[in-house]
Amino acid sequence: MPENMTQVIVFTMVTAFIAALTYWQCRGKGPRSGATEGQQNKEMFLAGGELKWYFIAGSITLTNLSTDQLVGTNGNQMALLAWWEFAALVGLVLLAKVFLPVYYKYQCTTTTELLEKRYNNKHIRAVIGTLFFLSSALIFCPAVIYSGSLFMKTMFNVDIPLMYIAAAFATLGAMYAIFGGLRAVAVSDTYSGVLLLTMAVAVVFLALNAIDYDFSAIPAERLTFIGSDDSPIPWHTLLTGMIFIQAFYWGTNQVITQRAMAAPTLKEAQKGVFGAVAIRLLIVPAIVVIPGIVSFQLYGDIGDAAYGRIVGDLLPSWMSGIFAAAMAAAVLSTFNSNLNSAAALYVCDIHEPYIGHTKNVPKLSAGITAVLTVITLALVPVYAQAESIINLLQQLWGLFSMPILSIFIVGLVFRNVHANAGIIAVIFGVFWYGALSFEFSPIHAPFGLHYIHLMFITLVSCVSVALLINKLYYKQSAEFAWGSNDGLVQPAES
Prior knowledge:
Blueprint: H1 3-26, H2 37-46, H3 53-64, H4 67-75, H5 83-105, H6 111-119, H7 122-156, H8 162-210, H9 241-251, H10 254-260, H11 266-282, H12 284-299, H13 306-314, H14 317-355, H15 361-383, H16 389-413, E1 414-415, H17 419-437, H18 451-472, E2 479-480
Antiparallel strand pairs: 1-2
């Protein structure tokens, strides 16, 4: 039997098996006939509040760990990029111990609902919800579809236009999001995650075996964890923007937190997050850097093509079919997760408050999913021009991440801050970070500062602007509220 045919058969069988397991787990569940809008929202976007901790851990892991991580991080072909994964541990702990208690206290469906309740203003929720929505539409959805398509094309060495593969991924992902909701996404994430992590660890050992566990031929700058000033992660950025990037991504980002908000109790949610911490600590750093480092010795500096090539060369055909199925599932789950979260933000933060309530949440969600899918495919050629997909993603995230995090910090740490002061600060932050970080700006990278430092500067600037506008224009004095009855209060267990 031809090698490619073996791969296709194994790929198809494994993919069908994961789909069957997901259907078996989710059968008979979904919005009930006659359900209220709130009940439909909870079922579509929070899995009915019934996710067990192991599905939360699996879904958080696989939503984050997709081809943009495996392809992009390995594409740098250096150990230094593992710092993104080590720093993520801090973000996950902040999610479990700081943010989740507040989300459960206020019974949030979206992270932005917390802002509405803290500021007592629906407009601030809509503004931040729109920014999250745009980040999924313009950044993460096209990035994961592009990187997944590139991986498949490289791994199987097929002469098929990249856009054909991207279209297949996007179409399947959209269908999954439309008919499955968060429950199906989280369940399939977990089953796919077990398979993906197992295969990724196997790739690590096969890669090490290919060089006889000898790193002596690899340049020292590819192996160091101390980043120089001109490296992707200078060591001093770990002391400034890095920690806040992680606080934003894991603590306020709807795509991640939505899974943790779907548990029956806070304790169950925290248990799931700490399960994700264990996976990330023990497995993830190795699988996102070691194959890339080894590929540098085997093939030279080949960038984002590194992971697909080393997997295609080292795995036997039957195993590569399994790995392809796991990677395809990872691509689809990350894409589905972004689609589901973006739909939740639109329905709950924009449509219901400003357009009106709907009797059919799944139908409205399906329409938004279709629009996002078209936008995703239109942007795939743009991401194909990127020199490094992972570095591009981190820089683009800066446009949204620090301004959004600032509004959460101000809302949680202070009271008596006018919502409009926060909104103005967020809008200021988007343009301020763009002016600091993009090369066409006349004030690009002042003093040669790294973009991670610029994120920290943007965060401090946004918080300062919000408090100054609140004081000078709205004539209100912000009051420190951390730990008070109006601040972070541990809710009673449900």
